[in-house]
Every structure is written in C-alpha cells, then in structure tokens.
Amino acid sequence: MPIAPMLSVRRGAQAVKFYKAAFAAAEAFKIEAPDGAVVARLEAAGSEFWVSDESPAHANFSPETLGGSTARMVLVVPDPDAAFARAVAAGASPISPVTDQPYGWRVGRVADPFGHHWEIGKPL
Amino acid sequence: MPIAPMLSVRRGAQAVKFYKAAFAAAEAFKIEAPDGAVVARLEAAGSEFWVSDESPAHANFSPETLGGSTARMVLVVPDPDAAFARAVAAGASPISPVTDQPYGWRVGRVADPFGHHWEIGKPL
C-alpha cells in the first residue's frame, strides 16, 4: 500500500497483541530489538499499518507522551457495529457510539489503550 | 481503502494545497465549514488520507498544538529521491536524507509545514 500510517506507542509488543485482537489484524512483519522495542507491520481489512515503540529522540512520540494524538485512523468495514464491539471487547474505550451521521456514514469512535483513536464505520 | 489516516492540522485549507503540491495528491472530497475549517480526503500514489482542521475539544490535536506527532506516514513510491525533492521544493523540511538502509529500504524523512512526518521510500 503506497501510504501506510506508523503509529508510535508505548509498550509496542502489547500494542501488537491488542491490534490483532481488536481489529483482527495479521502480523506481516515484526522486528524486536534486544531492549524489547518493536517495529511491526500489521494488516487489517486489507490495509497495512505500522506500530512502533516511540522514540522521542527521533521525534516519534506516543499519545501517552504528548497527551493526545495527531492523527486518527478511519477504519472502513462492512459491519461497523460488530467491529466496534470487537474493539471494545479487546480493551478499546468507546468515545462515540456507532450511529448514522448526517454526512452519510454509519460510524463510531474508540480510543485504544495506547491512546490512538479509531473511527469505525462505512458509507451508507 | 479500509484504513486511512486522518491528519489533524492547523490551517487546513493551506495544508490541502501543500499536500497537493508536495505529494501530487488529488482532492477526492472536501467540505469547508463557514469558519473556514476543512475536512478533505486526498489521494496520493493510489492511497487515501484525510486532512482536517484540529478540534482539541474533540481530541483531534495538531502537531503544532502538542509539540510533535504520534503517527508518521510511510509513503512508498517508485522514485523516493524524486518524491523527496518534490516535497522539499513544496516546503517540507528534510529530517533525514534519502539513503539505503540496512533493513533493505531506500528511504528519507521530511517534516511537512504542519508538523506531520513522512518517510518516503521503497524496498530495495
């Protein structure tokens, strides 16, 4: 995929486990440094994204470090209600329930345990 | 595309112009609120991403507000050197020049004028 986001997190190894459970993601690639820091490429719903332990010295900050996130992920799935429920069951926090929006999407929003936000929806 | 990042920025209308120039992005969708705030979906290199004006009240923070970014974009292109040069010519700041990396990629990194970081490269 020509553009793939790389999410900076704390506890990268745990984050990879979470994303697998929450979004049915498959691990396409993973390297683990001797100190436990992880860089992984995951695939979910046919798209790729990366997860890596933060490295503030290299300007890679986790949401926990900055107190918020500067990009959210828009995840388009056939059944947003089921995907939202699965993410919450895996440990994500509901931010907005799945509802029909006036702009023609059915969408909800969760925050994952690492501080990244996901909009889970589909065009109506 | 099932997963697309939505980048929060200040000066969203300017950001859309920048991404068009820097990454040859096409505007697939744009709405502009009466106050000038923008939500746009762009397509570059066959992938989609979103750009929207930040809204800290809704937990959408720009890198300028937080002092860093929590996700970087990995842009895979056939000619990273040319794409890097184009982004810099459009106003991006070089962070790391395009070089061959030991993990088998030719890649460089820029920061855009809105604080988001892009890794521009390809597997060797």
- Please give the largest β-sheet of chain A: 4 strands, mixed
Secondary-structure element order of chain A, N to C: EHEEEHEHEEE
β-strand amount of chain A = over 45%
Q: Class by helix and strand content of chain A?
A: alpha/beta
Computed CA radius of gyration of chain A, to the nearest angstrom:
14 Å
Largest interface: A-B, 42 and 42 residues
Number of helices of chain A: 3
Instruction: Give the uncertain stretches of chain A in residue-range form.
Output: none
Query: Which geometry of chain A do the CA atoms define?
Result: globular
What do the pLDDT scores of chain A average to? 95
Q: For the largest sheet of chain A, list the strands in their spatial order.
A: 1-4-3-2
User: Helical residue percent of chain A?
Assistant: 10-25%
Tally the beta strands of chain A: 8
Termini separation of chain A (Å)? 25 Å
Name the assembly state: homodimer
Give a structural overview.
Two copies of one chain form a homodimer. With 124 residues, chain A is α/β, with parallel strands linked by helices. In chain A, 21% of the residues lie in helices and 45% in strands. Chain A contains three helices and eight strands. Chain A has a four-stranded mixed beta sheet, covered by helices on one side. Chain A has a four-stranded mixed beta sheet with strand order 5-8-7-6, covered by helices on one side. In chain A, β6 and β7 form a beta hairpin. In chain A, α1 packs antiparallel against α3 (80-89). Chains A and B meet through β1, β4, α2 and β5 of A and β1, β4, α2 and β5 of B. β1 of chain A pairs antiparallel with β5 of chain B, so a sheet runs across the interface.
